[in-house]
Amino acid sequence: MPGLAADGPDDPRGLTTSVTDSVAGTFGARYDADGELNEQTLPGGYTMTEAKDPDGTAISRTYTRDSDGTVLLADSITETAQGQWATHAGTPGVTASQAYAHDKAGRLSQVQDTTPDAVCTTRAYTFDKHTNRKTLATSTSTATVGTDCTTSGATGTLTRNVDGLDGNLTATTTKTGGVILQLANLHGDIALQLPADSSAAPTVLDYDEYGNPRTDQPATRYGWVGGKQRSSETPTGLILMGVRLYNPGTGRFLSTDPVPGGSANAYEYCNGDPINHFDLDGRSWRFARILWRNRRVQSLANNVVAVGAIAPYAVYAGAYHVRRRHRFGRWGNSYLLTLEIAGLRADERLDDFKRRHLWRHEDTYDEHIHGSYCPRFMMGRRPGMEYISK
């Protein structure tokens, strides 16, 4: 019976340094001084290393073969002052690069996608005032420059998913003992499927910003955001994102958002910015950087809990002020996420505040105004959600 064993005796902070799967093999981890995972060893003699910026955001990831140092996959990004991806370069078996542009509302408006044969395809997106994607203009020109689960296929084959120490899909195993490493890029897309059997050919995968696969690419269960185990093995070939199906061709969900005000409208994906945002459960988008990993954010959240229930209001006021000035700047978004985390923690730990209260605020964009909500504590206010849309 397949199983997992974990231990962490080599790290005085109690962080897990090794996980052994009885089929896939042993996964190891090393952490930096702040407890962030920056290196992971994989079964078969491979190592993943990450480099982070001062805020703790991963800006490069490299997979190498230990025996000779061969680079199997390299992925890197640069960011704008607002913390959004400006450029991306990856070598998932082939070299490709993308340059991104965003409009004043923070939505992805243009992608310049350069393929290995030096062809640059420009995709431009326009939106209406409700962030419905109106057009996709494409022009092409030649450039001059852990937890596991078991699934059964239609033929009766069994596949187990094995998570690495970073919590993402890292390997799949079969009932005969076969192991395929799932190497993900910085966005969480599976970019290379590497069989442990050296006689088997690896599979190279690549996707555009909305999750559309490259031409003539083989179908696979986990591809775009496959590190989070979002499957495209649905009857229609769409991607199952939690409670809803997502269509990468249109960049929209097929059903309405169960969370009122979870995004710019009930169907669109991640406020028009699929590079910097995720909506993995179909219930409203979250920042792709997962700013909770930001050490400053984490420290501030702990301090909020320590000083009591009045702190979330102060954090909210500061965040709201920054968002008004910088239009979804990195720090404004960080503080809002801090408020959410701190609110949930305080909700659990403080006897006087047993439930979560939501306070309305509005964000004004150049093209539209939409309502949104975030956790707040207020004495005498009835719990619930409020959402105002203009």
Automatic annotation (TrEMBL):
Coiled-coil annotated spans: none
Domain of life per record: Bacteria
Keyword field: Membrane, Transmembrane, Transmembrane helix
Entry's transmembrane regions: 300-320
Region (Disordered): 1-20
InterPro entries: Rhs_assc_core (IPR022385), T6SS_VgrG/RHS (IPR050708)
Signal in keyword set: no
PANTHER family to which the protein is assigned, alphabetical: PTHR32305, TRNA NUCLEASE WAPA
Protein name: RHS repeat-associated core domain-containing protein
Organism annotation: Streptomyces misionensis
